[in-house]
Write a structure and sequence with these properties.
By secondary structure, this protein is α+β, with helices and mostly antiparallel strands. The protein folds into 4 domains: 42-71, no CATH class; 94-182, Pdz3 Domain; 186-320 and 337-353 and 365-408, Alpha-Beta Complex (2-enoyl-CoA Hydratase, Chain A, domain 1); 413-517, no CATH class. The protein has 17 helices and 22 strands.
Amino acid sequence: MGKSFRYPFLFVILTLGIVVGIQIEKVFSGDSLREGIRKFNDVLTYTEKFYIEEVDTPMLVEEAIKGMFDKLDPHSVYIPAKQFENIEESFRGDFEGIGIEFQVVNDTLTVVSPITGGPSEALGIMSGDRIIKIEGEDCIGITNDEVRNKLRGEAGTKVSVSIIRTGVDEPIEYVITRDKIPIYSVDTHFMYDNKIGYVSVSRFSETTYDELKEALNDLNNSGMEQLVLDLRGNPGGYLNQAVKISDLFIDGDKRIVYTRGRKEEFDEDYFASRQSEFENVPLIILISKGSASASEIVSGAVQDWDRGLIAGETSFGKGLVQRQFPLFDNSAVRLTISKYYTPTGRSIQRNYENKEDYYSELGNRQETESNNITHTAEKDSLRPVFTTEGGRTVYGGGGITPDYIIPSEKLSDYTRDLLRNNIFYQFILKYTEKNGESLSSRFGDDLQKFRRDFSFSIDEQKQFIDFAKDKDVSFMEEDFAESKDYIFIRLKAQLARNYWKNEGWYTILLDVDTQFLKSVTLFDEAKDLANLK
């Protein structure tokens, strides 16, 4: 009787276990995942077999993936193979090629600037040179993608180019050996005056900490007593670089940032861990509505610890952390795996329920210049409230709002038309053809002399307006009167860039940069905030 009862009982238990197991598996989405894959495969198979026309199956798969990601947050994205390599190299910090910045101007491949330390610079290729042949083939009318395909390649390989240069009658022939070309994330650094150091950081790549440390050491050796760290328009990048850079300015073992996700394996806490000579330098960080992610981690940590003053405009508001997963065909998916939080516990991620408004809302922001040390600008909002180390109120859920709000200057329609049609660069190209020798003779390598003494004559200003008209940019008298100073300072900065690269560009433009000019008057407040003597 025992045996006759035992076997049916075991069978019932086994059957019940299987059924319960299947249901549990469904709950934990394994079954729904398999069903989803099967459903997608069936639809794709029917479409490929029976659709009235031949179908591009890879294209359908790509579009289906994009459609799937449309239902997730704005920062979870699919990266096609064609884009993946370019994105990777921008964060890796290098690529392999001949080392030029270029533009195609009037169908002609024109060297904007040879990249410092690259093979083109070593051979003496200059700003304004026009490349008319690559490997003996005419390249007039070449596209940007074709330029990259023809001039990039493995380090050690060679490419021949024919160049036309102003003042030289015959084309100059070069054979350039491709090499690794650095992509710098520290755009420039220099002493603005005898006290204030200035550094602009454009992204957080693998090399950003090392670049910034080197820049800060150089400024220190030049007598820096105060620092402006410009993160305006910096879209972010690697979290670990943001942590290391924050650690340069934050002392002790203070928490810099932490992440929390659905899976515990993505929960991380990051603390300051190294001593630095920059922990007591009066600090102002400039941010804008284009400052996101890693830029906001640095700004948020500095703000929460009252370590320095944040100035400019409210930042983008990206508080999500992504991890990149490569796919078999060299494409990739970048998935949000967690949120990050500033030291006080703020998530600065903006609401993204309406994805159509997520980006457009930035352009509609209206901020008024104000001293916002006590953050009264946000007090009537519904954003969650937090307290800094010094007891100040700060807010989460909507980016980093500055301690001093300084809206950016609005460009006139005429200025926008000049920029959109690339008039500044094209005019300076012609200007240096005519005046390059006299400029070199007058200023040599002295950027500060150029900054002090150079200006465009009335006649040259008229030539610029006429040049723009010839390029179909209509003259707007009222707009011109309003923005004349900015237009010709920007033109001067474009000229300076030809001779002093990014240092020339930024040095000249800062003289009309209202956000920067206001920020450098705020170092007393920055020192008081951080209790620096």
